[in-house]
Write a structure and sequence with these properties.
The protein is mostly beta strands and about 300 residues long. It has one helix at about 290-295, and strands spanning about 1-5, 10, 20-25, 25-30, 40-45, 45-50, 55, 60-65, 65, 75, 80-90, 95, 100-105, 120-130, 135-145, 155-160, 165, 175-180, 185, 195-200, 200-205, 215-220, 235-245, 250-265, 275-280, 285.
Length: about 300
């Protein structure tokens, strides 16, 4: 492989079509698409200052590098890319890419990042920004911390281990998701999703876990989780804490240390289709149909 070291490039497409090259201690200044349609590059200690640095590229390794704010929309239509020990400051960095590996990466602004991507592995990473991972698939994350709303909207085939999410409307419209040893804090968790499993998770969510099918919680804690399981079917939930309130589950089993309030409207669901087990007696039961009959 050829080596290019300690250079400064600017202007449009300065290294267009480059292949089989090590780039080290390079700065790409103002100028679009510096490495468009490139192949088999090792990029080390490099700074990208402007837009669209890696489009339509393949077999790219990046280490100890920086994508500054204006390198937005930086990595699109690129396959087989790994990034390690790097700082990613720009939004919209990944779009329609395949075979992505990230390790020890910091996203300071991940707004609209990692959209419609496939085969994504992320480890030891911090992500800040809204709408991360929209419509992406085949995702594995370990020791990743996310702060930003609407994470993984419409995504599928996701496994997360030892991760944390501070995110409103996280995991909406998802399919086939497993979260293990994770912490989740945000409103309206995982509405309209199916085949989602939480194991050993700590969850706090206002009106979370609703309008779902085939939802499983094993050995989880629900801190201050209100109006949970509304219109959920095929529930299998074992909760090692209280649940503040449960509303109109469709079917399945919900077992908890305590359920403070249970709300059931028999005009909307069939109560016998859901088994409710509270180790401590339920504080308050609200039967909407009964209330309506009393008022007639």
């Amino acid at each position: 492989m050829q080596i290019i070291k300690e250079k400064y490039f600017e202007g449009e497409r300065p290294l267009y079509g480059l292949s089989d090259t090590i780039l080290e201690n390079i700065t790409f200044g103002e100028g679009e698409s510096p490495l468009k349609e490139t192949q088999s590059l090792e990029i080390k200690s490099t700074i990208f200052k402007y837009k669209y640095p890696l489009w339509y590229s393949n077999n790219i390794k990046v280490a100890d590098s920086t994508f500054e704010t204006m390198s937005r929309s930086g990595i699109w239509y690129t396959n087989n890319i790994s990034i390690k020990n790097s700082d990613l400051q720009a939004p919209k960095l990944f779009r329609r890419c395949k075979h992505i590996s990230l390790d020890h990466v910091f996203f300071s602004n991940a707004e609209e990042t990692m959209w419609t991507c496939e085969d994504v592995k992320i480890k030891n990473t911090e992500i800040n920004g809204d709408y991360f991972g929209k419509d992406s698939s085949d995702i594995y994350m370990e020791n990743v911390h996310v702060i930003g709303n609407y994470v993984f909207d419409g995504a599928k085939n996701i496994v997360c281990k030892n991760c944390s999410f501070v995110s409103k409307d996280a995991f909406w419209n998802c399919e086939n998701v497993t979260l293990v040893d994770c912490r989740l804090d945000g409103e309206y968790l995982s509405w309209n999703s199916s085949d989602i499993i939480f194991k050993n998770c700590i969850i706090e969510s206002n009106q979370g876990l609703c309008y779902m099918d085939r939802v499983t919680l094993e050995n989880c804690i629900l801190n201050q989780t209100t109006l949970a399981f509304e219109k959920c079917s095929n529930i299998s939930a074992t909760i090692n804490s209280k649940i503040t309130s449960v509303k109109n589950p469709i079917s399945g089993v919900i077992k908890a240390k305590k359920i403070e309030t249970l709300i059931v409207d028999s005009s909307k669901v069939t109560p016998r289709d859901t088994q409710i087990i509270s180790e401590i007696p339920i504080d308050k039961r609200i039967s909407v149909s009964d209330q309506n009959q009393e008022g007639e």
